[in-house]
Amino acid sequence: MPTILYIEDDRALQKVAQRQLEKRGCSVVCADDGEAGLEASLGGVDAVVVDLGLPGMSGVRVIEALRADERTARIPIVVVSARCDVQDHALALECGADAYHSKPVQWPAVEDELQRLMKERAAP
What we know:
Elements: E1 3-7, H1 11-23, E2 27-31, H2 34-41, E3 47-50, H3 59-68, E4 77-81, H4 86-94, E5 99-102, H5 107-122
Parallel strand pairs: 1-2, 1-3, 3-4, 4-5
C-alpha cells in the first residue's frame, strides 16, 4: 500500500483527499503547511501531493526543497491547486513537480497519475 503525503492547509480538503485516496488503496499522511510537510516527507512516503498556496513556506518552495534533498529527490510530486494561471503551472513544473491538477480535483485521475509516477520511479 503506497503512502501519499498531502500538504494542504484546508482540513476539509485533506479529509476529502484522504477518503478518496484510501478508497483506492493508499495510505495518506496529511500536513497543514510546508515545514510540516517537509518533515513528514522524511518518514518514508511514496509520493507527495502539494498545494501551492500554503501558509509560511509556499508549495513551490516545498517542491524545491524536496528536489534538493537526496532523500526525497526522486519522490513523485503532484501539485493540486486552485491557481489555474499558466505561470503558476509552468513555475511548479520548472521547480520539479511531475504533474499539476487544478481544483476542484478529480481524485481518481490524481491517483492514477500517482500510481504511474511511482511505477516509473521504481523501475531500474
